[in-house]
Amino acid sequence: MKITYRFIDGTETIVEVADESLAKIILDMNRQEDAKQHRIAYNERSIELFDELGIQLGTCDSYDIEDDVQEEIEKRKRVKEALSHLSEKQLRRLKLYADGKTYREIASIENTTPSVIFESISSAKKKFLKFF
Q1: In 3-state terms, what secondary structure has residue 16?
Q2: Strand locations in 10-129, DSSP E?
Q3: How is the chain split into domains, by residue range?
Q4: Over the stretch 55-112, which tens digit does the pLDDT of each residue have?
Q5: pTM for the predicted model, two decimal places
Q6: For residue 113, is pLDDT > 80?
Q7: Bigger pLDDT: 12 or 17?
C-alpha cells in the first residue's frame, strides 16, 4: 500500500508500506492528526469571529453564579435578537465562515464569487454589531 506524506513546507513523498495492517495504522494516525488540526483551526476561527463581532471572552472576577447566569441569558437574548435581523443568506454564510470555511469555499458552496461572499459577511457583521 502506498502512503503519501505531506510535510509542513508543502513537499510530498510517497512511501510504500508492505504490511497492510501497519499502513492502516499509519493512515489512521494521519486522519487523527488531520482531525486535530481541523479542530484547532475551527477553534481559532471561532475565537476570531467572536472578536470580530465584539463578543468578549474571558474569566469573571466574581463567583456569583446567579449573576453570571443572568448575564449570560441577557447576552444570548441580544445575540439572538441581532441574528434575527440577518437575512437567511447572511446567516447561512456567517455560520459557514464560523465553521472555518474560507470565502472561496463558501462561494463554491453558494455557487457565487468570493467577493460576493465577502460583502455578504461584512454586511452581516455590521448589522450584528449594531446591537453591541
Answers
A1: strand
A2: 12-16
A3: 1-58, 61-132
A4: 555 555 555 667 777 888 888 888 888 888 889 999 899 888 888 899 999 999 999 9
A5: 0.47
A6: yes
A7: 12
Q: CA 48, CA 92: separation in Å to the nearest integer? A: 18
Crossing angle between the packed helical segments 103-110 and 88-98, to the nearest 10 degrees: 140
Reported as type and span, the H/E element at residue 59 is: none
The DSSP string of 110-131 is HTS-HHHHHHHHHHHHHHHHTT
The CATH fold of domain 61-132: Arc Repressor Mutant, subunit A (1.10.10)
What span, in angstroms and rounded, lies between the C-alpha atoms of 36 and 11? 21
Rounded to whole angstroms, how far apart are CA atoms 98 and 19? 41
| Per-residue confidence (pLDDT) for residue 118, from 0 to 100 | 93
Strands 2-6 and 12-16: antiparallel
Q: Is 132 in a helix, a strand, or coil?
A: coil
Average pLDDT over residues 5-17: 72
Cell of 126: 455590521
